[in-house]
Task: structure prediction
Amino acid sequence: MVKLSSTEEENTEFLASLWQGYKYLLLLIVLGVVGGLVGWEAWNDNRAYKLQSSSDLYQSFLDSVDDKGLNETEIAQKILDNYPNTLYADLVNFYLVQVNVEESKLDESERILKKILEKHSSRWSDDYNPVEATATLRLARVLIAKGSPLQAIELIDGYPYINGSLLEVKGDAQVEMSQFNEAKLNYLKALESTQNTSIKSLIKMKLADLGE
Result:
């Protein structure tokens, strides 16, 4: 039999008393850790499944857009209902906005875009969000089309990441309000900030219409 030193005996007695006093708590901690690991793995598996499912459903949506024999509206609604917080839902919403604009359903387009902005508002983050930027740009265009250029300007002025596209649309809104000097200034700023040849040509045409 192995003899223990006094220090070893004290340690053994301490561990024994610790076990007697806290064995149930220790067992709960162990079970909690094991359960947490199992739960984490299950959560990851579920998340991967949802990502794959949403991806497959979005591919079906794209196929339905190309093939008019499929019901794109029904598939789009499934994505919005089952995966509302995914990028796929945002892409579907942008597509629906485009369809509504083409059908002159501007109120519905405005509603969808405002819903996207509520979801991606930069009030909750300081990071640039391309979805928010796209929704801001398209909503400004819709507001101009609805005859509300002042609201479009206010929307753009309230957005922290101004770019050439927004400056161009702001110029469009100012033209609608007969603010031609301000429009010229924003068109020139937009012209300087874009590298796209087609966009540059379009902005130059707008400046030419204003006598620039």
Notes: DSSP finds nine helices and no strands in the chain.
